[in-house]
Write a structure and sequence with these properties.
The longest helix is centred in the N-terminal third of the chain and has 53 residues. Among the domains are: about 260 residues, no CATH class; about 90 residues, no CATH class. The chain contains 27 helices and 7 strands. The protein is mainly alpha-helical. The protein starts with a helix and ends in an 8-residue tail after the last helix.
């Protein structure tokens, strides 16, 4: 026993000996590796549990609803939830994919011989070199965006067989107003003289209708649309904006995270279902996003090296966004502005001051343009048409927490009562509810709720590894949501007020996924890479394809139905007018129903002398006889929306009426 102990003691290395040093080094490396593995694995487990909880919650909600309505869960895959049903089995399979070792070498070796040697062929090398070119990447993803916009425009409307989404627009109040703005600019004007007679009959939604007749919106959107309106293809402006945004998103992400991340960001932005829908609407989001992405593109260059052109480009992009959607532009730019200010405070220099001047000069020009527009339309440099419109017609449609007794109701002749009272007074509960809706829908309409939520959780847990530029992007997303917190409406598709955050989310997502994939390849976890690719592929499939039997429809079809729910009413109105063979000139007064709150039947073009004018039926302001006396040169008709019928007002009313016509 003693001999054995003595021999063991003699054979064991003593402190300071070479053997002891080697063993300590091995122990330290193993401990460090184990600690790193533990931290990394714990992060993955937390992210996995987070995604699983979302899927289980959505599935539980779906099954509970089915039990309440049909007293059985039925077939599990029938009528699935697009954000939960198909992700649940994929999430349950995730641990196997992340734990089972499989190297890239094993994958290549398992391929047929002709596949494993294909990488040595010259054409593959040339293709690889071509795909590494930034210009090729930008052009490719931009063309994909254009293709997606066109494909989406060809979706058939369920309520109108044979009619496509892109054929019957505009659909939304705002679109008519923006189109009017573009036509006003093409006429070389900022506004038109007010309606000459019976102004209240010709009120158009989101159009200021006082001594000046003009869109209430900010000028950049109309200017962006104008060339395409002049060519007779207005939606081309939105398609073009989508192409620019996609290319810039890819380029910015490549500069931050590398080639593969750039390609992934561009591809995801191009196929985002929300983007495909909004790229077919005449709204301000296109030029706003173009401006913001131009600003971020040049800010990303400033992170690497200061140049005056980059500072000027950042300011110019922000100015375009500000002239489209000022609150959105300010919210997204705020974190980057604070970063720039912090750099100036920490390292003040002549270079910083020159950069600040270069950024600020375009913004000053933008504010001058706004002041010019304000003075021309409202008569007050500091009052925008947007704020004046709300004050005159819809006082409840405003930001902020207010009591009902603090709202000054306009005179009855101006007041758009039904539209104004549609708005709910904002409370903390409603604001919080809308915040949740906007966050949920911005994830769903960008790619999918679960993949983006899991990526966001991973971003936060690995916060030390994230580049400062990505932190600023995340801060911009948060800032945009917070800025719209005190507003009563969640928005079109539940998120259009924060629509711009979707592109930023996808840029962050691409960087996170590519970094995870690289780590998985290094740790010989190729199944994990395949699992991530499957998650993305499943999200895209759910967004654009029928992947289950039953009543399930692709997400994009659901979105198109939501946006175009008014199309059937528009088409019935147009058909009624076109088949009536009205004697011209004529005036058609529209008597809407409660369901027509968001239908824009009245959209005339100044100077209001076209053969066919559309107006609102306002018997509380103008009696039938008064209308006939005010428009003796026109045949006057009444369109009843509830029945879809058109009848002529009896011209003898004006002869029998002794009451004087109401002065306009």
């Amino acid at each position: 026993m003693g001999a054995i102990v003595g021999k063991a003691a003699a054979d064991s290395p003593t402190e300071g000996s070479p053997g002891s040093e080697s063993e300590n080094r091995f122990t330290d490396e193993a401990t460090t590796k184990f600690a790193g593995w533990t931290n990394e694995s714990l992060t993955r487990v937390i992210v996995w549990i987070g995604g699983l909880e979302i899927a289980i919650y959505l599935e539980g909600t779906r099954l509970r609803e089915r039990l309440l309505h049909i007293a059985t869960t039925g077939w599990w895959i029938g009528d699935p939830d697009p954000d939960g049903t198909f992700f649940l089995p994929l999430l349950l399979f995730a641990p196997f994919c992340f734990l089972f070792p499989l190297s890239l070498h094993d994958v290549v070796r398992a391929l047929p011989v002709n596949w494993s040697t294909i990488g040595q062929q010259r054409w593959l090398t040339q293709v690889s070199m071509l795909l590494r070119q930034t210009g090729v990447m930008v052009v490719a993803v931009s063309l994909l965006s254009l293709g997606m916009s066109w494909v989406t425009s060809r979706y058939e409307l369920p309520a109108l067989p044979g009619k496509a989404f892109g054929e019957l627009g505009p659909y939304v109040h705002d679109e008519f107003s923006y189109q009017l703005q573009a036509e006003t600019y093409l006429a070389g004007r900022l506004s038109w003289p007010g309606v000459p007679r019976a102004r209240e009959l010709f009120h158009q939604m989101h159009v200021l209708n006082e001594d000046q007749f003009a869109s209430r919106y900010f000028p950049a959107t109309g200017a962006w649309l104008a060339p395409f309106v002049a060519c007779g293809f207005p939606v081309g402006a939105s398609w073009f904006a989508g192409m620019i945004v996609t290319g810039l998103a890819a380029s910015i992400t490549r500069r931050t995270h590398g080639l593969i991340a750039g390609w992934l960001a561009g591809l995801l932005v191009a196929v985002a279902p929300g983007g495909a829908i909004f790229n077919n609407l005449l709204l301000a989001h296109g030029p706003t996003l173009v401006g913001l992405l131009v600003c971020l593109f040049f800010f990303r260059r400033l992170f690497d090296q200061f140049t005056m052109p980059s500072a000027l480009g950042a300011g110019t992009g922000l100015t375009l966004a500000m002239l489209s959607r000022p609150l959105t532009a300010a919210s997204v730019a705020l974190p980057f502005g604070l970063w720039w200010l912090a750099n100036g405070l920490l390292r003040p220099s002549a270079e910083w001051w020159r950069g600040t001047l270069a950024m600020g000069t375009p913004l000053l020009v933008g504010f001058a343009i706004l002041g010019w527009q304000n003075e021309a339309i409202t008569g007050n440099v500091l009052q925008t048409p947007y704020s004046l419109y709300n004050t005159l017609y819809t006082p409840r449609h405003a930001f902020g927490f207010r009591e009902s007794n603090s709202i000054e109701v306009p005179p009855a002749r101006r007041y758009l009562r039904d539209y104004d009272q549609w708005a709910r007074l904002i409370t903390w509960d409603l604001a919080t509810e809308n915040l949740g809706i906007r966050l949920k829908e911005s994830l769903a309409w960008s790619l999918g709720m679960i993949p983006l939520a899991m990526a966001g959780l991973l971003f936060i847990l690995n916060w030390k590894q994230q580049p400062i530029f990505d932190w600023l992007l995340l801060s911009s997303i948060v800032s945009l949501h917070v800025a719209h917190f005190p507003y009563w409406l969640s928005g079109i598709l539940g998120y259009h007020y924060v629509y711009e955050s979707g592109v930023l989310l996808l840029m962050l997502f691409a960087g996170i996924v590519v970094r995870m994939a690289r780590e998985a390849i290094r740790s010989e976890r190729m199944l994990a890479v395949a699992w991530m690719a499957g998650m993305i592929a499943l999200s895209v499939a759910i967004n654009f394809g029928h992947i289950a039997p039953g009543s399930t429809v692709p997400r994009i079809t659901t979105g198109i139905r939501s946006v175009t729910h008014v199309a059937e009413r528009y088409e019935r109105f147009r058909t009624t007018l076109s088949t009536a063979n009205l004697p011209l000139p004529a005036l058609v007064l529209v008597n809407p129903t409660a369901a027509d709150l968001h239908v824009e039947y009245v959209h005339n073009r100044p100077p209001f002398d076209s053969p066919l004018l559309m107006g609102r039926y306002r018997p509380d302001v103008y009696s039938d006889a008064e209308v006939l006396r005010l428009f003796p040169e026109r045949t006057v008709y009444l369109y009843e929306c509830d029945q879809g019928t058109l009848r002529q007002l009896d011209p003898r009313l004006s002869e029998r009426s002794s009451a004087p016509a109401v002065e306009p």
